[in-house]
Hints:
This protein is α/β, with parallel strands linked by helices. It folds into three domains: 3-258, Glutamine Phosphoribosylpyrophosphate, subunit 1, domain 1 (4-Layer Sandwich); 261-455, Rossmann fold (3-Layer(aba) Sandwich); 467-610, 3-Layer(aba) Sandwich (Rossmann fold), CATH 3.40.50.10490. Helix content is 36%, strand content 23%. It is built from 19 helices and 25 strands. The strands form four sheets. The chain has an eight-stranded antiparallel sheet with strand order 3-2-4-1-10-9-11-15, covered by helices on one side. Helix 15 crosses helix 19 (589-606). The longest helix has 22 residues, at 444-465. The model has no long low-confidence stretch (mean pLDDT 92). 2-deoxy-2-amino glucitol-6-phosphate is lined by residues 318-321, 364-366, 369, 372, 415-417, 505, 620-621.
Amino acid sequence: MCGITGYIGDNKTTDILVDGLKRLEYRGYDSCGIAVVDGKNSLYLKRVSGRVDALDKLVTAEPVKGAQAGVGHTRWATHGAPSEDNAHPHTDCTGQVVVVHNGIIENYLDLKEKLQAGGHKFKSETDTEVIAHLMEEKLKSLHVQEKSARAEMIEPVFFEAFRRTVADLKGSFALSMVWSRCPAMLLAARMHSPLVVGLGKGENFIASDVSAFLKYTKRVVFLNDGEMAAVKKDGIDFYTFAGKKTAKESVTIQWDSTMAEKGGYKHFMLKEIHEQAEAVENTLRGRLLPLGGNLLETEMGLTAATMKGVSALQFIACGTAYHACLVGRVLFENFGIPAHADVASEFTDRAKLMNKGTLVVAISQSGETADTLFAVREAKAAGAKVLAITNTVGSTLTREADHVLYTHCGPEIGVASTKAFLGQLAAIYLLAGHFAAARGALSSAEARRYAEELLKIPRLIEETLEKETEIAKAAEAFAASEHFLFISRHINYPIALEGALKIKEISYVHAEGYAAGEMKHGPIAIIYKGMPLLAVAPTGRTLELMAGNIEEAKARGADVVAIVDAASKKTIKASRYIILPETGELFTPMLTVIPLQLFAYYVALAKKCDIDKPRNLAKSVTVR
Ligand code: AGP
């Protein structure tokens, strides 16, 4: 899960590559680099261990004039420690071939052994470097080592050597390559790792994600697995791995590059927390039955008859998206519709239990999470239909699913997911409403009330956000704590898990989310005097039980911050309250999660953590 950029054209190549890397830093940021070629077949390589800002400084201090094509990379280490030697781009022995790669080359040890036996000298511990040396071999076998090789031979040779190199690779890869002897062409290939090309005028782009080049063009072509692209400044040709030319349609991205900027907020995370009302509104817009017609069905191709025929839903996802799945499970079960939720990386044997009657709902902001994609493939192989809930148009997940329900949250840049989670919840509530109506679990009057309640959520989110100052104060009061507990029950239990995940991710402290009723079965032993305990306790069927669990925790010394509404506050005794607006019990997760996001944000701020780029993490996890 690294970020790749590529550029060919007459603009400032190095600036475009570095700027693109800055936008892709959410994919990894332990080292980075660029390689550019000029019209005189010279290649310049600049790499640093650390963030793109350091690379930017290096490139500014030692500018490369006349660069007309190049590739860039920001890394999240898999093979080999984060260091300058292991930073991409990697070169062959001649220093003429340069490659950037995202993914894992599974047969790299085999390849490396053979290449070393043939005299190749490796400079890094990475799997990626084998690609450059392999390319060197393929070029050699095509007899173009002599400088005198005719110019018109160079492009086909570069392409053919690349094709043969790719054919020898096993595993997952998005890669892009430059050869200093062919400055008029960049090559790219994709297998199980996202790659997209951007179509400009007299210039073209390559990236792992459109946000790298949205500033320059919104017209893009997504590569599929098994496809390659030969990118020149005036055009792009697409091929299969077998070398067969293939026609591809371009799509226009609606996101604006300014939508991905901070807009006056200190961090993307805070900006994105504040965009949640809009994210929910955009996701719901025009899709609510019975208020808004049957747009949702038309979009997804999921008819009422299909919804009636589904025997069970199986939610799968990772991290925050998995917490959305858990909310989904409770919601569907509440309507009497069997539903299960699993972490995608633990789906292995359960996948075999899927069948034609199962609707697998795979949730992923990026649509590129390797664990989720793998689970989807397993479920499909067992005969299940897959519905994707994702924020990313054209992502791998959308292309592999049978039905797609987009969240319309706009780009999420902060590594800690916030508005994407709200978008996922909104999509789940939409879906549940449609299923319940189609299956008669909601009468038409009840479906109308459900839709009306849902439509109020964006306004209630705004009201919840007004509590920011109080939440910040509570967070500051506990910021020095090394341990946090989050508890809740029923449909808010996943919110307790999400609260704990948020604070772990960005503050690096120990936090646990528990089903409140489970505390007495063991975890209560960890409570000590003054331990912060955040209890999510809105009005609902489990309120009395929650009140009891909070008392048990207080009796052992917990210092309780209660997330309540005006009515439930009367039942809950805590040292601090965050009072939320009231909504129907089932809808509360869309409000209760907000104070926990803000709490995590302000704890991390007080601890001076790198909130948008927490250590050890990457936004999109494209390795298993
Ligand atoms: C959440 O804050 C995380 N960054 C992470 O758990 C994330 O939700 C998970 O990796 C899934 O990502 P996806 O939605 O892009 O599939």
